[in-house]
Write a structure and sequence with these properties.
about 260 residues, alpha/beta, 2-enoyl-CoA Hydratase, Chain A, domain 1, Lyase 2-enoyl-coa Hydratase, Chain  A, domain 2, 2 domains, four-stranded mixed sheet, 10 helices, 10 strands, about 15% strand
């Protein structure tokens, strides 16, 4: 198992839990954390025993405060941020997006800037009532990055996305739920139980079908009906040759619960 310095990676019973672990800096990004997160998602992707991934922040008030601005110090305004985004953030978000397994965000605290983008890149978000989200880029004269320009308008629509992105409004967990940014909000002390209910489901779900559905849904926002009909046929062909499909049909006929293995 790879040892990390800015995150924690735990594997248990089909579940990989990735914890951002820079508590003194509110789990803010430095280059090492970008690289380690990308590697951790690759590790979860390649491990056939992993059926679902949870992404969360370590103990404290923050899920992720975005880029660690103190780490860039006096070089602000003199470095090419485009290259930084391309080399550090884009590979991480692309890996999450292509991972053929569900990623559940355990939103334990504030998600700001790239930390907000990181949460939005997950497939589901379960938020503590104490959690907040803010597209903070505008506060320092920057634009959305790390996928927020893709995920945010798809969740809330163009006009609301424009407001949130250009005004940098702080969103409470309940407001995020009403906007469709998160799936569920629970009392902070019930966060682990709520997340476990979801991961317990996905650990026993037909993982290959879940991964195909994930790909189809993200593809549909940019595709025509004809394209998606073709994609459905393509993915159904793959799912139809899976062991889980055979097991699912047998379980239905035998009137028992299916024992999916993810294969």
């Amino acid at each position: 198992m790879t040892m990390y310095t800015t995150i924690l990676y735990e594997k248990k019973e089909g579940l990989a839990t990735i914890t951002l672990h820079r508590p003194k800096r509110y789990n803010a990004f430095i280059k090492a954390m970008n690289d380690e997160l990308t590697h951790a998602f690759e590790q979860a992707e390649q491990d056939d025993e992993i059926r679902v991934v949870v992404l969360t922040g370590g103990d404290g008030k923050a899920f992720c405060a975005g880029q660690d601005l103190k780490s860039i110090g006096d070089v602000a305004g003199t470095r090419n941020l485009g290259k930084s985004v391309e080399q550090r953030y884009n590979p991480m978000i692309k890996k999450m997006h292509s991972l053929a397994k569900p990623i559940i965000c355990r939103l334990n605290g504030v998600a700001a800037g790239a930390g907000c983008s990181l949460a939005l890149a997950c497939d589901m978000i379960v938020a503590s009532e104490k959690a907040t989200m803010i597209e903070a880029f505008i506060k320092i004269g920057l634009v959305l990055d790390s996928g927020s320009s893709y995920f945010l308008p798809r969740a809330v629509g163009i006009k609301k996305a424009f407001e949130l992105a250009t005004m940098g409004n702080l969103i409470t967990a309940q407001e995020a739920l009403q906007l469709g940014l998160v799936n569920k909000v629970v009392p902070h002390n019930e966060l682990d139980v709520a997340v476990k209910e979801i991961t317990d489901y996905f650990v026993q779900a037909p993982t290959k079908a879940v991964g195909l559905i994930k790909r189809m849904l993200y593809m549909s926002s940019q595709a025509s009906l004809d394209t998606m009909l073709q994609q459905e046929a393509y993915c159904q062909e793959i799912a139809g040759f899976s062991n889980d499909y055979v097991e699912g049909v047998s379980a239905f006929i035998e009137k028992r619960k299916a024992n999916f293995t993810g294969a």
